[in-house]
# Entry
Amino acid sequence: MLKKNKNKRLVNAFAFVVAAAILAVPLAAYADFTQLAVINGDGVRLRKTPKNGTILELMYRGEYITIDNDVVDHDHSAWIYVRREKTGTKGWMEDSYYIHDWQP
# Structure
């Protein structure tokens, strides 16, 4: 009886660890980048999280980005999730610093 309960606890612990690992991966990790755009400012901050997040890189006028319109932060609606094409870095930027509906 004790061995059966111990095995059940191990299975439950394993299931908990797997579920926690899945939930720990942010939705942005599954981004589907689809909209090509161009930066229209100099020194535009690409951040790890919206607003005051860690600055990952600075982007400059004329650089290409690809936007994922499916990843949104409802608390920071003026921010978009992008991939910087020059480096492949993914992060958040304020949405006023790119040219909307840009076509190459």
